[in-house]
Amino acid sequence: MKLEMGHINIKDVQFGSESKIADGVLYVSEDALRQVVLEDEKLKSVSFDIAKPGESVRITPVKDVIEPRVKVEGQGGIFPGVISKVGTVGSGKTYALKGMAVVTAGKIVGFQEGIIDMTGPGADYTPFSKLINLVMVIEPIADIKQHQYEKAVRLAGFRAATYIGELARELTPDETHIYETCTMKEGLEKYPELPRVAYVQMLQSQGLLHDTYVYGVDAKQTLPTILNPTEVMDGAIVSGNCVSACDKNTTYHHLNNPVITDLFAEHGKTINFVCQIITNENVYLADKERSSDWTAKLCKMLDLDGIILSQEGFGNPDTDLIMNCKKIEAQGVKTVIITDEYAGRDGKSQSLADADAAADAVVTGGNANQVIILPKLDKVIGTMDYITKIAGASDETLREDGSLEVELQVITGATNETGFNRLSAR
Amino acid sequence: MAKLKAVHYINQFFAQIGGEEKADYPAELRVGEVVGPGLAFKQAFGDELEIVATIVCGDSYFNENLDKAKADILAMVKEQAPDVFIAGPAFNAGRYGVACGTICDCVQQELGIPAVTGMYIENPGADMFKAEVLTVATKNSAAGMKDAVAKMAPLALKLAKKEEIGVSSQEGYMPNGIRKNFFEDERGSKRAVNMLLAKLAGKPYTTEYPMPDFDRVDPVPAIKDLAHATIALVTSGGIVPKGNPDHIESSSASRYGEYDIDGVDDLTEETYETAHGGYDPVYANEDADRVLPVDVLRDMEKEGKIGKLYHNFYTTTGNGTAVASAKAFAEEFSKKLVADKVDAVILTST
């Protein structure tokens, strides 16, 4: 399967009377976008704002970050089963708007939304401080349940991103990347000497507002399966979760999964990148056993030599991580895991809730408990009303001078477990 | 600003006094002298840090006269009041490594002076002290002196200047169990791909998080004759006599309690409670047997199902309590359980 990914570089985002992209500038009609967002009767109002790198701006509570994309050739459309009709994606041609993102924000849902600082020390820890962010602060109608609000905001973000992505349909990309994988037989014939490698991605599926959707299906109701790695580039997997901001995979992370990009960079040279395997992180033991049995079985059936295993979230999913690692290693498949750590504010505690000798190759996204002081910034997009309730904050978070004393946990994407960042720990 | 001061500790061999035959050489202070490896340090320190004294001690002498050697050396270091204490490097010399670790640990604890040492990773001194003392990983012989000094000297300077020490992988010391964040040169996914390529090729690679030793304990064989067995109750559920007489903390406990339950058939709301934070204590306080089942075991005692319930129970709070503390508690009271011929323990949590 082959996907041509065209990058449209966005140099600036401005509000305008008409939505369009011209000379690398995205103009957004607030009225037109408002209509798209408020299609959902559960949403009362939305306000838009633009946050640029280096500005003294704090966005909170952040829910999701989404990169606008448009499918210009090939089967299916962006966010299949969610926005577009169900149809297998990952082939043909797709354009992505680089350098910007749609950020959804709004009142608290699960006490676990995050912070994006566009400047200062906090900005060093989130990849989204480097993007021009079109922020949507969304208000629900009265008397709405939290999970309904979460769903409405989630879908509004995808609608908005799709609307903006469409503006690029007729453009010529600034650069094009080609991602192509082989079928099983082709791969064996083409790269007989290269080790067969897959990416095993654990999707957050603990439930109660900790969810992920695959082609529109709630991941906790799925069995481990295989994807062509290009499928996620068209939005096959979207975030629906509100786990701690630092190590949840936003939709932006799914669309731009760095494990996939970096495995493709070696494909045909040092490895044969066979496929992506997705599994879940359910809370019941039987589910954990079944899912990890299945990932190990798939690895064996695919005759893999090695895999990279990424986690999402922490604590309970640590057990899924270790089960997967143990069982996959037991099949003779070399495994490297990507996780993050909760080693306490002093860094002295055991970092994971589970461990096994088979997990002998670990990449870490850093200690999420590390305390950081975020200075007061000039402008807040969203609200500071819930700042002490975000996971990683406390009653003492808001200091007299307006600065925040928080754990890295509160920063969206800070210790991401797809290896998105350079942050690590020893 | 006055030059910062260092005191350097070396053994008889590196002081060129002699080998094994001179290992009983007692501790000696040489004020104003820079000896052996000290010369390499002196060069590395330049004008910033000065070795004001060298302490020489035979390896056998140190280890065989531990208390005296420690006291003598501490007094020597104290007199010089250095900004940093340096020991070794000891490479793969076992007794030297243990001496370096021991004396660095002492100097830090007793005098509050930061210390750094260096040795080969398999030197027994490394495992003993790397968590307490900054210990640079060196080669296994003195041929690695240049490399060892290149890593130890900058650390000594930072310690003397009271600057923050970076992460182990960058500064060259052995991981000491304190996790520290830093920015790598490459993103995590790329590091993962590189690690996988090395693992696939059977080449060396370094995990970024060595799995902790979870110290899993195999259960003892099942008791065949329960009717004559003595059973003890131990809990991390924080059950204590009402009023928590020993002030066991609600979280991150620093102590455990030992309480006599001779003649106690039932834990009531008036007599017992939980000290444990982090969970709704209502049901535990209403009836502490729910966490520490004294009532049920008394019934079983009467029915002859068990021999007897041990007369003490041991308790602490598991909430946020460090594994090291929990292990130390159990190591202590387990001895009493064994001495009193307890056959089995029922361990309950919250």
TrEMBL record, chain A:
Superkingdom of the source species: Bacteria
Name of protein: Glycine/sarcosine/betaine reductase component B subunit
